[in-house]
């Protein structure tokens, strides 16, 4: 049974017994205080209020290994955890908050430093940053300084919020968080991160001469950095929240032709759906076309996936890192 199923069962049982599922406050902070503070920092909406209230939850962590160490939900919760807490526990529905909407109800918080990205390591400790792309161990928690505002006495929190909003304070806050995340990232390189790296540093220079990398998705959360956003803009590409972005995106500036690389260690090959979606993206942005490559680290990994999935789209390419010199064309 999944976490979501467990929470639905808990909710239904509590309602049947006429019990309150969610308390009036977590850590002494009511939802009304959350709403007041978010209004003060121009971030108030029902979803955002409920998300911050969820991240205050001081009940045992929903990560089993973290809970065993005595950690709580507020120490680090994934997007799925937060969405379930809001949609199922707080709102008493059968639907969790939409994961795809996190750019609306989570991203604004980490952009101002109110929420920190954290990663649950093998020792059941939460470290700063999201060093592993698309990992189930990528989580979020309220930043300590913002938590102080939420928990401050009634006659103090507004002054704290005003100081917290000052631009120089914000820049310093974000710089510290970025440095902490960088340290964590440098200590971790997953197979997926490694494959993404060799895909654009080994494969692209050999087989995609004339193409420049403009986007690399080797992280989690904020899909596009400011540097990449500028590069995309200069290339005449507009990204929307509905676009399915690849692991690596390149462009040949002379021919206005794009190239997509998907680095696969678990799933995510260039299948028909992804091919059609990114062809539509290229057309919408006035590009001459787009090519595709799916990469794997080893023949064994490629065989394991394709023996069961057989989902590589016709007219795309396949490259395997341990067989670096060959680039295979997929023809049905």
Automatic annotation (TrEMBL):
GO terms for biological process: DNA restriction-modification system. Residues 191-325 form the BsuBI/PstI restriction endonuclease domain. GO terms for molecular function: DNA binding; magnesium ion binding; type II site-specific deoxyribonuclease activity. This is BsuBI/PstI restriction endonuclease domain-containing protein. It comes from Idiomarina seosinensis.
